[in-house]
Amino acid sequence: MPFTGRIAFAESKRNHAQYNNEKQAYQDAGFQSLLLGIREGKYLFYIEEALDRVRNGSFGVCKKCGKRIPKPRLEAVPTAKMCIDCKTKQERAAEAASVG
Q1: 8-state DSSP, 82
Q2: Which helix H or strand E contains 22, and what residues bound it?
Q3: Model's pTM, two decimal places?
Q4: Residue 65: closest CA among 51, 84, 48
Q5: If phi over 0 gives left and psi between -120 and 50 gives alpha, with beta otherwise, what is residue 19?
Q6: What torsion do the CA atoms of 39, 42, 46, 51 make, to the nearest 10 degrees?
Q7: Are 77 and 88 in contact (CB under 8 A)?
Q8: C-alpha–C-alpha distance, residues 64 and 85, integer Å
Q9: Using one digit for the tens of pLDDT, what is the confidence trace for 6-33?
């Protein structure tokens, strides 16, 4: 292959690699947008649930122990269904179950 042919071939490979990188970045961005949309949809669902609890008078009451959820927790997580203690126990149990 003549020298100029090798340069053209190398440039062609570089352009192809750049195209693949850009294509992957575009696909990753699309996937990230999809995940963000799913996450937002879930959050909207949680907000609707919280509004239902406001309507039926159970907002701010832990669904596990029945105690009032402290105001600072509701300010931090307005969609909270459980107090910190019950949520922590639930997360630890789920973690233990996934470990073994």
Answers
A1: S
A2: helix 3-56
A3: 0.59
A4: 84
A5: alpha
A6: 110
A7: no
A8: 10
A9: 555 556 566 656 656 666 666 666 777 7
